[in-house]
Amino acid sequence: QVQLVESGGGLVQAGGSLRLSCAASGTTASTCTMGWFRRAPGKEREFVAKINSSGGGVDYANSVKGRFTISRDNAKSTAYLQMDSLEPEDTAVYYCAAAPKAVWDYWGQGTQVTVSS
């Protein structure tokens, strides 16, 4: 069992930056692929980024490539999402997720990110 708690959301102007954190607890957290998803108002949840257990493999949605960076610190059982050059279209609730294998089995409660124009 893995518990996830996100933090770091808030209100920022377009062009600004935010760093989201996802604190994971549970004995298997360090072996999970960690990911970030988001749900914008009136839209379905979408994939943002993921990072494998060692941190050596990452993947991003095309919409955030070059602007967002995912990382993790297994010693702190924490994953991060550095978001730069934020756009109003990035406004959403951001969710952290963990996949012990191929399925995103664990989810956090979400943190709101609002980008004003």
Describe what this molecule looks like in 3D.
The structure is a single chain. This protein is mostly beta strands. Helix content is 0%, strand content 52%. It has strands at residues 3-7, 10-13, 18-25, 33-39, 46-51, 58-60, 68-73, 78-83, 92-99, 106-107, 111-116. Strands 2, 4, 5, 6, 9, 10 and 11 form a 7-stranded mixed β-sheet that branches. The protein has a 4-stranded antiparallel β-sheet with strand order 1-3-8-7, with no helix packed on it. Strand 4 (33-39) and strand 5 form a beta hairpin. The radius of gyration is 13 Å and the shape is globular. The protein starts with a strand and ends with a strand. 34% of the residues are buried.
